[in-house]
């Protein structure tokens, strides 16, 4: 404890938030030595006594106000207890058995005390990194506690008397709880009215990112919308996002992009994801891959373009996901497209890009129809005018092409329906003359964006 | 004062009062009190000896409260003391029941009411004497052994009597087998004598007994009363019994029951056991077929579901109840109820209970198409196994989805004409919107006009008249009569249907969605 408080004093005197946050870091891999030393120092009484001395009697330390001292005293006492639980859960306390649920409970207590520090004990805004550490690990411990519970197959679920409860909520009970506390962290940052230089508003985006992560894990993305609404309502006094650390910007933009993506707002999604892509650190392969997972389908729909081999080169997983589809689209091969989509279905569904990629079939079809158009050749030119492509094409020709490409039978009505769709979506220009059984394509740019 | 009126009949007296003997009762006092209080003290120190009727679920009394009780237990209400006194009067004696048995029973009764925190609310003047209870118990054991010698009633009663210590709260699952002679256990098992000695109106207060949760007003009344007493007995009455942990087992034999959303722990006598619920379901099915009164049926199904839930009954019967209710709700377009059933069914199927999971998984997909909930749709597909995707109803639903995703209205309306099970009820909910979308599409692609007949067929209208009406509802000038047929003027209609389409897709009913 002594050394811990010494670190605390040093960090406090220098007003270094990150350094301060390190003192309550619970990472067992990074600080296994330190954590054990803290726990082995003594029992509850001696720890309390130690802390009492260090915070209330020892006058050598930094100039803490009385309220602040109270806050930090409680925080370190709870930290000490949490460390005990962590060691127990990791099996490092001999025969004392612990559980992640216990760890979660204690760590939650610690988190609440830190939040309380801001609401009651006049903590200053540079200490926010402590809040980050608390929130980050609160989420991790919640997930571990849930995993522990589901693996122990504890069937205590049915406790309610109503039958309209959500059984899935039970699986993520701690994480749901965690989301509420993360939301409090968000609120305590958002609602600070101090002038910007000393405002907790600088913690807003870190808190949001934690919340997003949690909501995504809980499959309750719609809740993220509330967060976005909250910050857009108070946007005027939140610092602009580009004033925040880049890592926070990238994460935020990524989630903002994915949220738009899930709402089928591909234009917005592309904007956010592109920003995230451009700012992301080039060595953060995993993050780059995640961004591309959504950015590529976006591009396919907004600009009808496919990823180049060069872009996918560093990402073998993405190659496996996208290359078969991309080849099928390029080759206007409907059957290959259907196969590729089916083969990748599980993975696409998991990444929630299936429903978007499926629409790539339109592009494959467009390419096919274009081939029919090109193969139709030119009308005989009159009076030496430049040759004009044949623009009246019998439905039967398209029908044949689709039959060959998809390997399935299809009737003329369905072909007309598909053609109508092409026209409706502006992938093709022209009209269908149903009674006469042919399509009349536009003389100029029958297939916009493809040079014919 | 108003609060005085709600105070229990036995008003608290100073501890010393207990020892000051009523002058007219000297002959009952000494042996009784000793026996009683000694037995009682012994009990609080050791693990608690259960009475013959099942103890309240929480049998472990924290030691702190046990000592509380010990120090305060001398404050018996006057009504209780009167009851004790009555018990030991000569006139209460019944031949063949020994004093020891009576004392044990008396102890159990008082102990029980105390544990349940209803000692002060119980009307002791109406409580049958221990002798009467024992007699009733014996009669019942006798009756049971006569009517069905092999029935477990007899043995269970005997067991309960011979060795009450063996009863644990887990034994709650054999409810009907208990020697239900104590009035709060059951009404129908009462002997005639008991019924005479205790008017039915008073039963209520007694029957509230074994259930630990109290109504709000009751609690408030108690709080008020405690305040009035100067807070002396606040610890006396606590610990208030914790809520039920385990499932309860119903005792209600009625087939019909109105739904009432529970605000407190359910009462066994209001809940119907599973065998009754089976009959209820059969009756409801018949009634639905005969009368088709949805409000009545829905209400009945809700109470049926509630009874299943509070008794933790999760088996194939449960599944069939939810399935039937879901189908009826679907038929009536009651999406709220349908959703609740569907959510439960999903959980039940996931727990491995058999039912028509394929049918309902298909509904699930169709429903999410209706609500245009892409995330949920994605999850619903993620839940499917490869084998399930090949099953006809699921395959149909997935085809509907992909047809819509690709704007293939031709395929969509063909699928609409051939829906497995009751999926058509779901598809009906979004078919109008898809017709508008298809028309908007056609208006842009087909020039200059289309035969009405073609639209009728493509969009699966029943007749030309129906499709004409559909179009006229939006605009009267879009149809033109030619020599032998009617044409739809696509060139003119584009804007109109584009607007209608946008409007239709904005309005998706999200009622009760999960």
TrEMBL record, chain A:
A family per Pfam: PCI
One example GO MF annotation: RNA binding
InterPro entries: Csn12-like (IPR045114), PCI_dom (IPR000717), WH-like_DNA-bd_sf (IPR036388)
Residue span(s) of domain PCI: 250-446
Source species, domain of life: Eukaryota
PANTHER family xref list: PCI DOMAIN-CONTAINING PROTEIN 2 (PTHR12732:SF0), UNCHARACTERIZED PROTEASOME COMPONENT REGION PCI-CONTAINING (PTHR12732)
Family stated for the protein in its record: Belongs to the CSN12 family.
The protein, known as: Protein CSN12 homolog
Source species: Anthostomella pinea
From TrEMBL, chain B:
InterPro entries xrefs: SAC3/GANP/THP3, SAC3/GANP/THP3_conserved
Region (Disordered): 47-74, 123-142, 148-245
Domain of life: Eukaryota
Species this protein is from: Anthostomella pinea
Polar residues bias: start-end ranges: 123-138
Protein name: Uu.00g054420.m01.CDS01
GO annotation, cellular component aspect: nucleus
Compositional bias of kind Basic and acidic residues: 186-197, 219-229
Record Gene3D superfamilies: 1.25.40.990
Residue ranges of domain SAC3/GANP/THP3 conserved in the record: 257-475
């Amino acid at each position: 404890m002594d050394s811990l408080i010494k670190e605390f004093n040093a960090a406090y005197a220098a007003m270094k938030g990150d350094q301060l946050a390190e003192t309550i870091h619970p990472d067992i891999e990074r600080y296994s030595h330190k954590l054990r030393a803290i726990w082995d120092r003594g029992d509850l009484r001696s720890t309390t006594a130690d802390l009492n001395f260090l915070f209330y009697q020892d006058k050598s330390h930094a100039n803490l106000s009385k309220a602040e001292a109270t806050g930090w005293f409680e925080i370190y006492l709870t930290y000490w207890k949490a460390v005990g639980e962590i060691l127990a859960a990791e099996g490092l306390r001999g025969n004392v058995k612990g559980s992640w649920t216990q760890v979660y409970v204690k760590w939650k207590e610690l988190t609440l005390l830190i939040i309380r520090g801001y609401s009651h004990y006049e903590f200053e805004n540079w200490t926010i990194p402590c809040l980050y550490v608390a929130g980050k690990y609160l989420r991790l411990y919640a997930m571990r506690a849930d995993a522990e519970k589901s693996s122990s197959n504890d069937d205590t679920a049915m406790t309610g008397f109503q039958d309209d409860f959500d059984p899935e909520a039970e699986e993520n009970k701690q994480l749901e709880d965690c989301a509420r506390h993360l939301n409090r962290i968000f609120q305590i940052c958002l609602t600070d009215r101090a002038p910007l230089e000393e405002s907790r508003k600088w913690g807003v985006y870190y808190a949001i990112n934690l919340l997003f992560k949690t909501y995504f894990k809980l499959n309750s993305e719609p809740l993220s919308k509330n967060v976005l609404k909250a910050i857009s309502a108070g946007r005027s006094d939140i610092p602009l996002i580009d004033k925040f650390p880049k890592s926070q910007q990238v994460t935020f933009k990524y989630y903002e992009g994915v949220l738009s993506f899930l709402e089928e707002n591909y234009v917005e999604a592309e904007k956010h994801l592109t920003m995230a892509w451009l700012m992301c650190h080039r060595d953060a392969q995993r993050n780059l891959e995640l961004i591309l997972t959504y950015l590529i389908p976006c591009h396919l729909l907004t600009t009808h373009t496919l990823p180049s081999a060069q872009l996918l080169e560093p990402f073998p997983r993405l190659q496996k996901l996208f290359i078969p589809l991309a080849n099928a689209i390029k080759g206007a091969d409907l059957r290959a497209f259907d196969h590729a989509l089916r083969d990748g279905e599980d993975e696409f569904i998991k990444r929630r890009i299936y429903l978007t990629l499926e629409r790539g079939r339109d592009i494959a079809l467009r390419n096919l129809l274009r081939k029919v158009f090109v193969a139709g050749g030119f009308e005989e030119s009159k009076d030496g005018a430049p040759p004009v492509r044949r623009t009246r094409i019998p439905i039967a020709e398209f029908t044949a092409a689709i039959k060959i490409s998809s390997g399935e039978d299809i009737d003329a009505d369905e072909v007309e329906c598909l053609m109508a769709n092409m026209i409706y979506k502006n992938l093709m220009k022209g009209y269908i003359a149903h009674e006469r059984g042919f399509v009349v394509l536009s003389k100029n740019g029958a297939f916009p964006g493809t040079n014919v | 004062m108003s609060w005085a009126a709600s105070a229990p009949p036995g008003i608290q007296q100073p501890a010393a009062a207990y020892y000051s003997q009523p002058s007219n009762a000297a002959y009952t006092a000494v042996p009784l009190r000793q026996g009683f209080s000694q037995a009682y003290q012994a009990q609080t120190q050791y693990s608690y000896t259960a009475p013959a009727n099942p103890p309240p679920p929480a049998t472990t009394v924290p030691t702190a409260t046990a000592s509380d009780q010990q120090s305060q237990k001398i404050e018996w209400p006057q009504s209780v003391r009167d009851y004790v006194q009555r018990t030991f009067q000569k006139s209460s004696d019944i031949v063949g029941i020994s004093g020891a048995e009576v004392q044990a029973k008396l102890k159990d009764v008082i102990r029980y009411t105390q544990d349940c925190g209803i000692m002060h609310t119980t009307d002791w003047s109406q409580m049958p004497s221990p002798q009467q209870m024992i007699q009733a118990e014996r009669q019942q054991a006798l009756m049971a052994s006569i009517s069905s010698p092999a029935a477990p009633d007899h043995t269970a009663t005997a067991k309960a009597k011979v060795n009450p210590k063996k009863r644990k709260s887990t034994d709650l699952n054999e409810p009907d087998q208990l020697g239900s002679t104590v009035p709060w256990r059951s009404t129908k098992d009462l002997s005639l004598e008991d019924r005479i000695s205790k008017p039915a109106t008073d039963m209520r207060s007694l029957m509230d007994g074994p259930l630990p949760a109290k109504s709000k007003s009751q609690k408030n009344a108690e709080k008020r009363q405690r305040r009035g007493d100067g807070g002396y007995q606040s610890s006396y009455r606590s610990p208030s019994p914790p809520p039920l942990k385990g499932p309860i087992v119903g005792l209600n034999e009625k087939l019909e029951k109105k739904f009432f959303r529970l605000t407190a722990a359910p009462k066994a006598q209001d809940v119907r056991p599973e065998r009754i619920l089976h009959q209820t379901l059969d009756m409801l099915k018949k009634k639905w077929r005969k009368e088709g009164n949805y409000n009545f049926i829905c209400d009945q199904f809700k109470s049926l579901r509630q009874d299943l839930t509070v008794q933790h009954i999760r088996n194939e019967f449960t599944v069939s109840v939810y399935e039937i209710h879901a189908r009826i709700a679907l038929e009536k377009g009651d999406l709220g109820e349908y959703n609740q059933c569907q959510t439960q069914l999903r959980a039940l199927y996931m727990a491995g209970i058999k039912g028509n999971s394929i049918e309902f998984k298909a509904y699930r997909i169709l429903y999410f198409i209706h609500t245009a909930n892409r995330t949920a749709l994605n999850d619903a597909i993620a839940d499917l196994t490869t084998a399930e995707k090949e099953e006809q109803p699921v395959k149909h639903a997935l085809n509907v989805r992909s047809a819509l995703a690709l704007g293939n209205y031709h395929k969509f309306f063909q699928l609409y004409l051939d829906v497995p099970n009751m999926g058509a009820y779901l598809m009906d909910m979004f078919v109008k919107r898809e017709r508008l979308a298809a028309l908007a599409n056609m208006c842009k692609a087909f020039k200059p006009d289309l035969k009405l007949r073609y639209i009728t067929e493509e969009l699966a209208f029943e007749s030309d008249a129906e499709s004409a009406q559909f179009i006229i509802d939006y605009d009267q000038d879009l149809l033109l009569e030619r020599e032998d047929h009617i044409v739809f003027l696509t060139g003119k209609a584009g804007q109109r249907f584009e607007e209608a389409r946008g409007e239709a897709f904005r309005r998706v009913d999200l009622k009760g969605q999960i």
